[in-house]
Write a structure and sequence with these properties.
heterodimer; A: Serine Threonine Protein Phosphatase 5, Tetratricopeptide repeat; 30 helices; elongated; B: alpha+beta; Methylamine Dehydrogenase, Chain H; Immunoglobulin-like; five-stranded antiparallel beta sheet; TPR-like_helical_dom_sf (chain A); FANCG (chain A); FA complementation group G (chain A); TPR_rpt (chain A); Faap100 (chain B)
Chain lengths: 624, 774
Amino acid sequence: MSHKMSQPPSLLNKWIQENNELVNKWKQQEKGRDTVRQDHNQPHLKWCSYEFHKLLGIIQGIPPNSDYTQLELAVVYNAGVCATAQAQFSEAELFLTQAAERVLQVTGGETGASDPLVCWRAVLKSVENTHLHPSVLYLVCLQWAIWLATCQLKTIQEFQEEMPSLFETLCGGVGDGAISEARSKSSNIPLMVMDPRRLIELLQICTSIALGAERLTEGQSSEALTGLQAASSLPAPRALVGYTHLLSGSCLTHMRRPQMALQCYRKALETDSRCVCALYQSMLIYRQLGNTQAEIQALRLLHSTLMLPSATDPALASTHLLSPSSLLCSQSLSSLLSVPSALSVLHSLALKCLLCGRVSEGVEHYLDLLAVLHSEDQQGLHTQDATIPRLPELYLEAGAALLMARRPADCLALCSEVISTTLELLPEKVVLEEPEERREAETRDTEGENRVAMVLWTAAAYLLQGHCHSHLKDWKQAVTHYTRCINLLVKVRLKKRDFQPQFSSADMDVQRGKDLCVLQKLKGLSLAGRGISFTQTDKLKEALRDLQLSLQAFPECVGAGLWCGEVLWRLSRRREAAACWEKTWSLTTQSLVENLPVYLQEPQSGPLLDSAELRHRIQELGPT
Amino acid sequence: AMEGRCAVETWTEFGFLGTSTTPKVRFGTDVFICTGNDEVYVFSTHERKLKASNCFSVKDDLPLCCVSFSLNMTFHSCRAQSSSPDSSSIPAELKISEFLVIEADGVSSLLLVGTVLLTLSQRDSSWLMTLYKTPEQTESSSYEVLGSFSLPLVSAVVQADTESKTSVLICLHCGDTAPLTLPHGHFCLEPVLFKLLFGVEAALAKSPVILCGLPDGRLCFLPLRLPGARLRVLHSIEQPVVFVGASVVTETGPGHSQCLVAMGEQGRVVLIKTEKGRSEDGSSLAGFTEGIVSGPVQCGCLDRNCLYYSTGSDLLLLDLSEGSSGKESKERVEETSRKTLQSPTSLNVSRVVALAEPTSNTSVQLLGLSVRGQLQRISLPARRKDAGLSKLPSAQVGRSIRDLLSAIGDVCERSSVLKTAIKSKNQILRHLNQVVNISFLLTATNNTEDDPAIKEKPIRCHAMTSWSRLLQKDCLNLTCVLDNSSPFVLERGWTLSVTVFPLCCSSTAGEEISSANFSFPFQNLNSGETLEVLLPIAAAGDSSFPMTVNCSLIFSLSSLLGEQEAASSNISLPLNTLTVDWLNALQLNSPTARHKMVTFQPGSITTDPIQAFISSRQIRCSGRADRGAESGSRPEKYSASVRVSSELLKDSLVLKNSNLDPKISLSSLTVHACGPNGATVKLTAKKVGIVFSDELEVQVESSSMTAVCGLHHAVLSRIQVQTHTHTVRLNTIFREVQQNQISGALGVGMTAGQMNPGLLSVYQELRQNPLLII
């Protein structure tokens, strides 16, 4: 180098050196900072972009000249990559079109094509079999990256169809020659800020993934599957290969092949252990298949994976300037990859455990959930997803779970928390509007508190407290709490007069009249509870009245039906009692309202009647 | 209700008056003051001394736009530290090394809630609230982002004019769930109000709620620990929010704030309280009471039941409690469904830019920071009803005297400020009076146009020309002398403006006139003083003579009233017009030729048309005759001549106060000179004497037609003016004669002996000034 320093270097060498210095500086910075997150590289990236732009301006200050073209194209590539990495796509495209024009001016090709595809075709034709060919191909790659990042999948498809040979050249070992050449005489070859071969690899798999997601959303599952399965063998970062498997699984799910889909999800997880979406999708399939144990297992895994500190890191952390996440930004893909928050998963897990009878496990999960909500640690709370129920309902669910686990004291505490929160705000009366009207107005965050919901929460809390006291056989307290519940419920007036207050839940549109359904169920359960409590204190008259009212409000209440019969029996109205029992048994075969909250299920813990004993009594009674 | 005055005790002075940005202040046991540059002061209110200054400074490589923010940043990180238990003796904040915790643009305010740091910043189309997790160890280089919430901007218009303004962030805790000691910016709200405003879910989650006041007037809230919560708008006061706080208002209750107060920049106040049983179903509602006090509000703070706010010129107190009067008129209040605010009480403390809530329980004391950088303790006088109940002990009397004295000091300070303001205004009025007097003087003489020679303006210009050699080039300079013979002083603000333009061009308006304008501002010109200015009017070879020199005086009001008051109001008063003709511009060929020539004074262009006609005929005739006789052999090709009496010539061409070489007058008959265009000219005067014995012929000869014409014109115009003055003088003589006759006839005050010499002199004057041109 010393002989070079003695004489003034030519303009070309000076510019090459400047470019290479910039590239080396960037690479050093990248190495030094690879532990730090992407956004901390931004200022340096900005600076690099600016410097490349400046250098490009100087180089393009002279008319197009074949001696300088290779250098110029390299600088255009570098400046373009930096601009694309900063999401300045229009700037990057401007670099590219300018470069194309200048290449055509050098080679004497036809200029003036406005369509980028036509333009690039012309440029490639003009540089065919020249030393400029690889450099131009790199720029085409960059153009491809910009199309991908701006979700212009149609253009990419067209490009692939129009220039199949070129596409192959690109995907095949293009640039190998240039690289080996670069190694041989390093100082005279302009360096690139990102290895073009890496870029091509990235582009291929990202294009496949984006296309697959697009087709899947459009319903072309089998086409998508073919493309994705082909892409899964491409050389790429693990996370991206994982995505191909994951999307293949989604295609198979759409094609109603759940077992094959599960296999794909497993592959995705094997490829990339942080692919939480695969876990989530598997869980959905188990739920669909009705495999509760597997579903719970998947939920548990999903939750613990989401709670790992690495889960918050971006899955596609990049080692390169252009990250996969910046190339994969289509709406359809992100909706396919979305996973509920850890909190929501934990709730699903708790509820599932509770519903399938793993009560103690469910209680633990509910308690975890409440602990997370009250912890100082804000981790995971600040998500915009609204899939978990509102907080008082969560408390009530947890209370119900505690009661099921025979921890009435804890349940009482939770309920009194809810009651103390809402008590001062309860209205004297509240109107439950017609379902159709309400539905339009109903959003999760309506202005002001939803008064009906508040009444229903408080009533449910009293109901649970009543259950707790009856579990503890404190009948007086139970009656008090059931009465409080009933008193609250009568404050709710129905707006539509001709609306049937007595209804069968089977023909009730649950989603629409959910509040009404909850109201009726609450009435039924609280009256039944009070009736049963009265039975225990031998106030049979009151008991009969309450139980009959309960059945009026909610005919499917099994406890009310059975206990009504029992009271009738004790009142020596045995025929009526037998009819009542028969009717109740015939009802139980009907499906219960699935969507009702868990705290509105009939208590399993109160005084029970043995059906077999009842049947025996009927038999003893003999036929009429 | 207030008795006495506020006592203001200055604790320390920071002296950062003049910084453009308002200082950022955090009050507490340690007061942190950021002056807007790179200094932060820490003042201990217990020890009453400055504990540290300049303990943080902004790193050089930060962009300037982030300076205030990053300072604020360090501010908060050190606040977090100072609350740690083991930092009792040495201020903990001194131990904190500087580091940049967050790098973000456009942050307008921030707040620390537990381990969470909140920032509020404005993006292109939305407000963004970002939550950061503060690490346990301060060595960490950056804070982890926990989440962010956005709220769209109202409109682009609002965005434009609220750019520089800051927002307010406070944290509200629900009743009994609040921590025991609340840091700055945290309030404990009464549970029912909390639930009414922010929902039962927030209360159930025991989540603190962040309330922010935006520059567009919106009050937004965010439950911090509620899953799925969003940033929502609570209310809007439609003007930039200056202050948001919570107050107890009533004495009952366990100290939970029952009233949320927000205050806008233009004085709009909104009180948010629980109103029991106001809704149709009998449940409680959150009531919003709005009112307007006179703004602009600079800062505010709350104590148990009062809102204190500073408008810059005064500190005011607004009683928020419904009080005794409020209770009496409860029925009336309910009839007029909208409650009104009480009227604010002035506390007579001016220039407070930052306030902190009272620190003492026994009496009301505020901490204030004045615009001059004084940290003050403002002790409010006790309320009258309390004062009436108990007699003050002697120690308290002593203290109240001290308070009174310091209040007097404060009033003195305010009055001295007012005095200086009045003084400067008087000065301006006096100045303006002079200006108006001068204007009247000059415009009045303008109007009486009939005798311009006699009624000369008391402020006028005269001028002299002189040739000088500069950079190998001769140029003609004009020495213009402004003579103030008026009884008034021309004070600061006046400018002498001199406009020079060629006479011939001025008639043809369409052409581009090569006029030059010179202005000379001057400080003070007393009565009888002169101001001499020198200005170049032509270079050699330039022959655009004669030139007109317009002098005027200009007074700019902006110099008196300041820039913004009077943008374009200037008073322009024309003085007089001078003429620089060929005679003035001659360069005599004698060695002593570079001397001054005096331009003739007033209105030299007003000539009699008949005489002009005669003179023009003369030029034609003689010019033709000469050309015919000597055809080109001699250099003086053209000539023109004028016949005048020698007396007149002497008067007109040689004035008494000129130091002109006497050669040019009667003794020397021929003068060779060089005109401004370079042509040599010959001026000859010879006796002709046919009709009158002293009749002279003045002849101008030159090879240049321009020179001949120019000089001839100059000579003629001077003679014409001279005759004009002669006629005027004759008129006066006549008047004197008449007067003498009248007085003689009446025989009042004048004897025959006195009268006769008077008449004689008049007569002689008449004889000595014969009226003659040809």
